[in-house]
Design brief:
single chain, alpha/beta, TIM Barrel, 30% helix
Length: 220
């Protein structure tokens, strides 16, 4: 199985954006994960539109945009960029989830939903015909460096079972404190990719090649 390794670009050194983006691609990352926070849906703010446009202009990899914002439908057109492949929204943040996912699909992007630790999986069941990518949050959204929530394994297993039941081929990403301590078990429970942050990739001097190779070695 080909695994998607998607570094969270909120963790990079923005003063050296071009070299950071290039180094992550050269290390073997497969997409870039763009966290967008409005300070409302989550109590933090990142990344700005100018940052994202800069990343899009130099990227050689697809971009996955994760909208942690209130009423994301109002902002979707801002992310109709060349390298954006997938847009994730949180169901609780949408007045009309189906309409939001249909809008993403009309933009020729993959519609995705992000499931918080306390989110009902009824959102997934109700939109399973539209969903092409899923993020299962292993931490509460909004901040890097949080502790992995152990009930994530059970939630991931249920998500996988729902996808199997409805013949949904969506990518299933895990986001939050992904490290060598949990990555193998998460694959066993159905994960097909990972959003990588300070627990697994941006650590130990940010040696991206060594850190990513270490995670891959754990999976062998």
């Amino acid at each position: 199985m080909e695994i998607n390794y998607s570094p969270s670009l909120m963790c990079v050194d923005l003063l050296n954006l071009r070299s950071e983006v290039e180094n992550l691609a050269n290390a073997g990352c497969t997409t870039y994960h763009i966290d967008v926070m409005d300070g409302n849906y989550v109590p933090n703010m990142a990344l700005g539109l100018l940052d994202i446009k800069a990343i899009d202009s130099i990227s050689t990899l697809p971009l996955e945009v994760h909208l942690m914002v209130t009423e994301p439908a109002k902002l979707l057109d801002l992310f109709d960029l060349k390298n954006v492949s997938t847009i994730f929204v949180h169901p609780e943040s949408c007045t009309d989830l189906r309409r939001t996912l249909l809008k993403i699909k009309s933009m020729k992007k993959h519609p995705g939903i992000a499931i918080n630790p306390n989110s009902s999986l009824s959102f997934l069941v109700e939109t399973i015909d539209l969903v092409e990518a899923i993020i299962v949050m292993a931490v509460n959204p909004g901040y890097a460096g949080q502790k992995f929530i152990e009930t994530t394994y059970e939630k991931l297993q249920t998500v996988t079972e729902i996808c199997t039941k409805y013949s949904c081929k969506a990518e299933i990403l895990l986001d939050g404190s992904i490290s060598d301590k949990n990555i193998k078990q998460l694959i066993e429970y159905g994960a097909t990719g990972f959003v990588l942050g300070t627990a697994g990739l941006f650590r130990d001097g940010n040696d991206y090649v060594a850190n990513l190779n270490h995670l891959k070695k754990v999976l062998k």
